[in-house]
Specification:
15 strands; 7 helices; 2 domains; about 270 residues; Phosphorylase Kinase, domain 1; 7-stranded antiparallel β-sheet; alpha+beta; D-amino Acid Aminotransferase, Chain A, domain 1
């Protein structure tokens, strides 16, 4: 991230993280895949209000001096005052939402019907905001907590926009044989307006499942870095010290899942 005053240059690298550690070797091409998917969604959903350009030659030096290196992985965007909460939308019960539901039948203060299973589709998508942690994991909060922090009007606007974007994206994903189980958005404030910021609807910010592989009661394979996480769990790594280097096979399998998500989403 490069600060140009009233603008930012965001460059998606090929680095990848897990368990709050950045891995020692990258996933070649990952940054370009995430950028291509974000640019597709910005255009498809009509939510490109933060984006100024994705052409490095329009970003000025030193970026324009390295346009071949940065092409496909850099975005020039408006600088905003970041709203310090993750705007999470869940259409299915998975991840931390599933863990919370098992304990209390509630997710982020929202009581759900009894008897739901892992990966169950929810009666309707729910908005479950979370804190933006500087380190470690984000923490789910209630909508009342969000209202207290931001005011009722802004909180209601974030919920409405997040649900609208999720529902439209989920419909498109469904036509491509994908389920958008959940996702998170970030927003910023600029001149009194609320702008959608950062990347959106990529495997790094969303849980995509294959419709063909989906089974209620099981944890479907996501189009993300799960191959890498699963391998790390077998290594004996203590997660407190620098992680081991990723084998070529794990790098290739992880990249393939990102490529499959990109191919399905942006095709046609």
């Amino acid at each position: 991230m490069y600060d140009l005053g009233d603008r930012l240059v965001m460059i998606a690298t090929d680095r990848i993280s897990a368990f709050d550690w950045v891995m020692p070797n990258p996933i070649p091409g990952k940054g370009k895949i995430l950028t291509e998917m974000s640019l597709f969604w910005f255009n498809f959903l009509g939510v490109s209000e933060q984006l100024i350009s994705s052409d490095p030659s329009e970003m000025g030096p030193p970026f324009s001096d390295h346009k071949n290196l940065l092409a496909g992985r850099a975005m020039l965007v408006k600088k905003t005052e970041v709203v310090p909460f993750e705007c999470v939308v869940r259409g299915y019960l998975a991840g931390s939402g599933w863990n919370e539901y098992q304990k209390s039948g509630v997710v982020a203060g929202i009581r759900l019907p009894p008897g739901l299973k892992q990966a169950s589709r929810l009666p309707e998508p729910i908005f479950t905001p979370a804190t933006k942690a500087e380190s470690g994991h984000d923490i789910n909060i209630t909508f009342s907590d969000l209202e207290n922090a931001l005011g009722k009007d802004l909180a209601a606007h974030l919920r409405q926009r997040s649900l609208d974007i999720y529902q439209r994206a989920a419909r498109h994903a469904g036509t491509k044989g994908l389920i958008l189980a959940d996702t998170k958005f970030e927003f910023g404030l600029l001149d009194g307006k609320v702008l959608l910021i950062d990347e959106i609807l990529t495997p790094d910010s969303s849980r995509f499942w294959s419709s063909e592989e989906y089974r209620v009661g099981e944890s479907p394979a996501s189009f993300d870095k799960q191959f890498m996480r699963d391998w790390l769990e077998t290594t004996g790594w203590d997660k407190q010290s620098p992680p081991p280097e990723l084998p070529k096979e794990i790098v290739e399998k992880t990249l393939r899942r990102y490529e499959q998500a990109r191919g399905r989403i942006v095709s046609g």
